[in-house]
Structure formats: structure tokens, C-alpha cells
Design a protein that fits this description.
Layout lengths: L2 E5 L4 H10 L4 E5 L9 H11 L3 E4 L6 H6 L1 H21 L3 E7 L23 H16 L4 E5 L1 E3 L12 H11 L3 E4 L2 E2 L2 E3 H12 L4 E5 L7 H11 L10 E4 L8 E2 L5 H4 L8 H12 L4
Parallel strand pairs: 1-2, 1-3, 3-4, 4-5, 5-10, 6-9, 7-11, 8-12
Helix pairs in contact: 1-7, 2-4, 4-5, 6-8, 8-10
Length: 288
């Protein structure tokens, strides 16, 4: 049985991945408390003991505010930690799957959807750190797989983390009747987390390279939230709760839309954001 080492093992995606893969692989999952990726000697020692075939590197500081306010700390984890993982993987000839982000495109002037051939121009610390992490991974492992993930959404599950996401945020606002403002000048893919999980074993077999990974979506964030409300058959006027924010990104709309054609050409297809929302509502029987 091949071995898979997962960093950031308690994360939103990682926790679900280890459950999905455990029947076909020997899984070694490490949380932040179990493995400090900035400790090179510890990382090398663990890799030497386990000798994994695959490494799914998810450990990161993904909070953009924390990255901006704690640049040195976040760089140490997001970049230096990634270098340590890449070095250790090379020492054991393990294949690296590095989770990057669509946010590497957040400073591009041209409109999306972006293909992998577009040169990314991140304008946030998180985006710059993720792009640097990509470069470092390939420096040590040319056959690495880099996934530029979209914003993931999903529901809370027992013993599994849930991140702030468009579905959960909208549901919280509706059930609590608490108003939230959603930006109508932001455009990005949003992907049901199990659409990634269900395709991940195929992803692990890809040739090395950069892949935009997730759902395509031409709706604004506000339109996406409104679509969730309509799909839930909300019995009251959701427009009193889900408020349109027209001021944020007013001068220059934020466009993080990706094209997933490269993965589609490899037989790996994702639902659109609309279809992903339909799927999660059906699977969880969500009606308000």
C-alpha cells in the first residue's frame, strides 16, 4: 500500500481528504501541533521514518489579514515551511502536491477567467507567498503538482473543520436573521469541497505542473449568495438580510476567476459553482 503524508491534516480540505483516501493508501496526517513545518530537522526526520510516496502539503496561514499583519511569521510558514517539505520530499523521492491559491492572480490587470499560461501578479502578501511557494516546490521537485484552488465551501461535519465560506456564511445569516453585506464587485470560482475530494486520486496521478483547480463561476459573490438563498426556497425576503455591497472594489472589480480547461483536458472535471451549490443542498436536504 502506498503511503501519503498530509500536512495541515486538520484543515477543511485535508481532513476530508484523509477520510476519502484511507481505504486505498496508508495515511500519515500531521496537524500543526504534530509537525512544525518550519523545523527543518523535524521535517526531514519524519520523512526519513515514513518514506512517503506522496506528500499533500496543505499546511499554511491562509488568513489574508494575518499574512498582511504578520508578514515574517506567515512567510516563515508559507514559504520556508514549504521549502522544508520540498527538500524532505526530494530526499525520499516523494511526489509533492502543493495547495496554492487562485489569489496569485489577484493583482492581474486583465480580466479572467485566467489560464495557467497567464503570468500571475499577486498584490497581497498571501498571494505573493503562495506564488513563492510554487517556485520553491518546483526548484526541488520538477514533477510536483501545484493546485491553484478556488474558495472552497461546504457544511460542518462531526470532527471536521469548516472554514468561513460563501455557503456557511449565507446560511448563518439566514438562520440567525443577521444582516451581512456581500460584494457585487468580486468575481471568483467557489467549489464544493467534495468536488475536489472526489477528484483527488486522479489529481495525484497527473504529470507535474501547475493546474487551476475548482469550479468556474461568472456570478459575483453577491449573485452567488443570492442564488444560494433562492435554491434554499427561503420563505421570507432574503434581500432584507443579504445586502449588496457595491462600494468594495468599486474602482477596480476583483476578478479571481479561473479556467479549469487544463484539468478538464486530463479527464478531471468540476461542476460549475451553481451546480456545486445544487449538489450540496440536495445532499444535505437544505431547505429553510
Amino acid at each position: 500500500m502506498e503511503k501519503v503524508l498530509i500536512t495541515g491534516g486538520n484543515g477543511f480540505l485535508a481532513n476530508r481528504l484523509k477520510e476519502s483516501l484511507k481505504e486505498r493508501y496508508k495515511i500519515y496526517s500531521f496537524s500543526r501541533e504534530d509537525l512544525d513545518v518550519t523545523n527543518e530537522a523535524k521535517v526531514l526526520g519524519i520523512f526519513r521514518d515514513i518514506k512517503p510516496n506522496y506528500v499533500i502539503h496543505t499546511a499554511a496561514i491562509a488568513d489574508t489579514g494575518k499574512c498582511e499583519n504578520n508578514k515574517e511569521m506567515s512567510f516563515n510558514i508559507n514559504v520556508n515551511g514549504t521549502i522544508n517539505i520540498a527538500k524532505a520530499a526530494k530526499s525520499e523521492n516523494a511526489k509533492v502536491i502543493f495547495l496554492s491559491s487562485e489569489q496569485v492572480y489577484n493583482g492581474n490587470e486583465e480580466e479572467g477567467p485566467y489560464s495557467e499560461e497567464v503570468i500571475p501578479k499577486p498584490n497581497t502578501e498571501y498571494g505573493r507567498q503562495k506564488l513563492k511557494g510554487e517556485e520553491e516546490v518546483f526548484k526541488y521537485n520538477k514533477d510536483s503538482i501545484v493546485l491553484r484552488l478556488t474558495w472552497l465551501f461546504g457544511m460542518p461535519e462531526r470532527n471536521k473543520k469548516v472554514n468561513s465560506n460563501i455557503l456557511f456564511n449565507t446560511l448563518n445569516a439566514l438562520t440567525r436573521r443577521e444582516k451581512i453585506r456581500i460584494c457585487s464587485n468580486e468575481f471568483r470560482g467557489m467549489t464544493y469541497v467534495y468536488d475536489i475530494v472526489d477528484n483527488f486520486e486522479k489529481i495525484m496521478q497527473l504529470k507535474g505542473g501547475i493546474y487551476n483547480c475548482g469550479s468556474e463561476n461568472n456570478m459575483s459573490s453577491y449573485e452567488t449568495s443570492s442564488y444560494i438563498c433562492k435554491s434554499l426556497n427561503v420563505s421570507y425576503d432574503h434581500n432584507d438580510i443579504i445586502l449588496e455591497d457595491t462600494e468594495k472594489y468599486k474602482e477596480k472589480p476583483r476578478d479571481l476567476r479561473i479556467s479549469n480547461k487544463k484539468l478538464k483536458d486530463q479527464g478531471i472535471d468540476f461542476d460549475t459553482t451553481k451546480k456545486g451549490i445544487d449538489r450540496v443542498i440536495k445532499e444535505w436536504s437544505l431547505i429553510l
